[in-house]
Amino acid sequence: MTDLTGRAALVTGASRGIGLAIAAELLSRGASVTITARKPDELAAAADKLVSDDAGGDSARVLAVAGNAGSDESRAEAVDKTVQAFGNLSILVNNTGINPSYGPLVEADLGAVRKIFDVNVVAALGFVQLAHRAWMGEHGGSIINVASTAGLRSTGMIAAYGASKAALIRLTEELAAQLGPGIRVNAVAPSVVKTKFATALYERGEDKVAAAYPMKRLGTPEDIASLVGFLVSDAASWITGETVRIDGGVLATGGGGGG
C-alpha cells in the first residue's frame, strides 16, 4: 500500500534539504518526480543526485523545472511539464518556504512580510489550483503542505514566518474539506531540521538546542521525507485535513515552535 509506481509527483523547493529528501523518498517508492527551485544549476545537480542515488537510476523518472514559486508563469510551467512528461500529476508537495524577516512583528518590514505570505501561502494555493485543473480534479490525488511547528506555537524571532505557516495549516484544512473525497490534503509540521535553511536556529550550539528535545537530536530531512511518503500513499487513504507534528517531542515539553 506504500508503493507509488505509476504516480507522478511535483515537489517544490526541492534542490536541497527537506524538498530533495522528499523527492528521493517518493522516487524510491516508485513515483516519477518533478523537482522545482529557483536556481537552475543547483536544481540540475539535485536531479543528477536523485538519479545516481536511486537504485534503478532511471533518469526518465526525474524532471527538473527551474522557476520561482512566486511566479504564476513558473508554477504553470512546472505543472504542465509534469503532466506532459509523466501523463499524470497524482502528488503535489508544497515545500517551498522563505523567511527574510526576523524579530518582533511590530518592527517587521511589511514588504518582507508580504513576500513571506506570497511565497509560503499564496504560491502553495496557486500550485493546488493548477494541479486541480491539470489532473487532480478529474482523477484525484494527494497534496502535502510542508508547514512548521512555528505555525502551532509562538517563536518570537521568526514570528512572520510562523504566522504564514499557521495560515498554511488553516489552508490545508479548508482544502481538505473542499476537495474530498478524491483529493486528500494534509500538512506536516517539523520543528528544527538540520538544513541550510534552518542553520541560524542551531549554528551557535546544536547540542544545546537538541537538549530541549525528548529525542535529544534535531530532525533530518529524511525524517520528514519518510512521513510524507506514508501520507501520500494508499496506506494513509483515510487521513485528510491533518497537520502531523514531527518535532522530536519538543512541543510536548511546552517549548516553543521552530523550523
Automatic annotation (TrEMBL):
Superkingdom field: Bacteria
InterPro entries: NAD(P)-bd_dom_sf, Sc_DH/Rdtase_CS, SDR_fam
A UniProt-annotated Pfam family: adh_short_C2
PROSITE patterns in the record: ADH_SHORT (PS00061)
SUPFAM superfamilies reported in the protein's UniProt record: NAD(P)-binding Rossmann-fold domains
Protein family: Belongs to the short-chain dehydrogenases/reductases (SDR) family.
This protein's name: SDR family oxidoreductase
Organism from which the protein derives: Pseudonocardia humida
Lineage: Bacteria, Bacillati, Actinomycetota, Actinomycetes, Pseudonocardiales
